[in-house]
Amino acid sequence: MRKKQSLLISVKSAFEGIYYCATHERNMKIHIGAGLTAGFFSWWFALDKYEILILLVTIVGVLVAEMINTVVETLVDMISPERHPLAKIAKDVAAGAVLITATFSLVVGYMLFFSKL
Ligand SMILES: Nc1ncnc2c1ncn2[C@@H]1O[C@H](COP(=O)(O)OP(=O)(O)OP(=O)(O)O)[C@@H](O)[C@H]1O
Fold first, then answer.
1. How far from 45 is each of 31, 62, 105, CA to CA, in Å?
2. 1 pLDDT exceeds 80?
3. Is 16 a catalytic residue?
């Protein structure tokens, strides 16, 4: 049986995963840029703490969905480099999850910021 790695190594590996996604995935860069922009406007429009909480939960949801999408894409590319209908389903469903969270984030952004313009 493989020896369990230390907590420190596990955390380091998790940060490597985040770093990989942020530096290699174009869509992740877009989501991070959008999140930072939303963060700036939350300061600009002086959102209250509950509005900021909703914004943070929304941003985290999009980032996590994108990371899970990257996991699925990577695994599918490893397991099924040839085209396969099941590989297509896996990738399309993962991409659909990102689309749902990203669309929801636009709705949240509209509701939080539009009334303050
Ligand atoms: N092995 C495969 N078998 C069948 N269809 C595939 C396969 N790989 C990719 N596809 C199809 O092509 C689409 C794009 O896949 P791809 O791996 O290029 O993702 P991507 O466009 O790079 O995604 P992202 O932009 O999020 O990185 C998938 O959503 C799927 O419909």
1. 21, 22, 17
2. no
3. no
